[in-house]
Amino acid sequence: MTALVAGLLLLRVLPVLPPVWLLWLLPILGLMLLPFRSYPLALFLFGFSWACISAQSALDDRLAPQLDGRTLWLQGRVVGLPDVRDGVVRFQLQQARSRRAELPQRLRLAWHGGPALRGGETWRLAVRLKRPRGLVNPQSFDYEAWLLAQRIGATGTVKSGQLVSAASGLVSWRDELRQRLLAVDAHGREGALAALVLGDGSGLSVADWRVLQDTGTVHLLVISGQHIGLLAGLLYGFIAGLARLGWWPRQWPWLPCACALAFAGALGYGMLAGFEVPVRRACVMIGLVLLWRWRFRHLGVFLPLLMALVVVLLLEPLASLQAGFWLSFGAVLLLILIFSGRLGAWPWWQTLGRAQWAMALGLLPLLLALGLPVSASGPLANLIAVPWVGLAVVPLALLGTLLLPLPWLGEALLWLAGGLLKWLFLVLAQIATWLPAWLPETLPFWAWLLVALGALLLLLPAGVPLRSLGWVLLLPLFYTETERPVHGQAEVWMLDVGQGLAVLLRTREHSLLYDAGPRFGDFDMGERVVLPSLRGLGVAQLDMLLISHADNDHSGGARAIQRGMEVKRVVSGEAAALAAMHQVEACEAGRSWQWDGVRFTTWHWAGAANGNQASCVLLVEAAGERLLLTGDIDSSAERALLDSGIDVRADWLLAPHHGSRSSSSQHLLAAVAPRAALISRGQHNPFGHPHASVVARYEAQSTQLYDTVEYGALQIRLGAFTQGRGLRKRARFWREK
């Protein structure tokens, strides 16, 4: 079983998938090994080949390249519960069909200003389809891996549509139930109740998610194994309690009845929650634990976990691409490690405290490896929230939902559950304000290995030799620094922020961020992408935040950066338009300074007639190699820049205005004479950036183009005269090239 699991998990680290012929040859080789009793190797080959075949099947189900960016009429059924935020309806469509092309089985779509869709409805839609693709940055969420794990073969934007047939089936019933829950009076926490009962997190605001993340309590408001396990445990305990009191019928063996009722309750809760992958994983684990409790306790406590791991990965090998898979199995393994083999029973309060201590310390290496925030307040927050939600809110919410058909009773229970949630969020918000989540920088492998070993030592029972050495092994977590540029050189990162711009410039002891990415409603690129990337790269503070101008695609994420880390100075070409930020200074033409042997010079056109022309231009020179960052200046501002007398020759040029037709004039290119140009843009952007004529002008000068769509986040060693390195070029089998 361990060999089979190893083969299935190897998929997670593959840069590319083996050829199909080899995937079919490996099981045959495994069968040939069986007569020689090489069972572990044979099962390893079986697991590896099955995982790769499943992954290849998901890749083959992606949208055909020739359909990327095209608009098609298609028809399909809405699955799951549509999510409505800021006037945008996001939903998944299954079994989509089109007369003009073959489509993937599952699509993820967005409809701006669309009608109120219901799960189970069939729609005919005009959709602009795109192949699955996400932003690629240091220490950021891998959207492409998530899409593949969900087996979503295309994303798209709905242009128009018409309803073909009304909702039907289980998903329709769940949607109606969601509407009932959202309509009750629950002290403003109706969305949180829908999350607990149905697994629908669309009713939680960005502020709610931030509080949950800062306090390490996200798992409590999203249906997980904890909730399903709690319900199963309550049902099991109910029958066990009756049997202990002598109230259970003697002719019925209480143990198999308790296990059967507990598993039925887990399945029922899973169906209510939509039976998504995490819920299915939890039901498998609970089913195997109950089977072990009924018949196989003599085989040890680790067997059910190993069996659950095998079953989950056989059913869905792509589960290993999701962080939740590693965290859920890691949490169960930690609890087994902490509570098995101990002499005597602990009081309940000591049991709860030790469980939170184990989760905080034991999951630390996993969180670091997955690039997830670490909540220092998690043990305290969970010590309060776990019993609060598990023993009070969830039973009241489920019972209230069950009794909704009865006048007043169901709504009264939901009102009480909502009140408890309201007070819980008030407490968690105070804890989050006191101690927010911490996103550490990316550790070298040797440092991570020491931290993992230290955490393991500290989790061992008291009295184990050298256990206290674990505290020493945790020190690299706080004292390991990422490699910094040498004196006279600068490290440049052009982050992948879609249709926007964010460029980090770091010298030996200083950091400057040029623009901060866009913000679209509740989705703040500064908070979601730029800030985690800065933390992952080891940037603890910014000496300067330079916002070229006030357009949203350049300044939208600036306030999130100010909230998330110390910013000593803010400079902008449109300081007056950024009055909402703290102490914004105006960009000055000809201002120059030096950090660690690297020279910075700004330029600003006093005669600018609009925001684009007012962009603050930054020239950076390190050891004779130069970089020119131009914001969104147009050809008129380019001419003013050339007339200013500044020496604009540069090795690297940020293509003005994302490669717009109104910029990158022939005069500018001739004066700068760049050997490479940088283009930051979103794929299939509505502006057509970069324009074909602009690309042709760069190519005519033999200028190499570095486009974030092709390269992802780009790293440059300014002063070393080397090529740029794009993160998208790092091989991942699920990543679109």
TrEMBL record:
Pfam families: Competence, DUF4131, Lactamase_B. It comes from the Bacteria. Coiled coil: none annotated. It is found in: Cell membrane. Residues 499-683 form the Metallo-beta-lactamase domain. Keywords: Cell membrane, Membrane, Transmembrane, Transmembrane helix. It is a multi-pass membrane protein. The chain crosses the membrane at residues 39-59, 228-247, 253-275, 296-319, 325-345, 357-376, 388-406, 413-439, 445-464. PANTHER family: DNA INTERNALIZATION/COMPETENCE PROTEIN COMEC/REC2, RECOMBINATION PROTEIN 2. This is DNA internalization-related competence protein ComEC/Rec2.
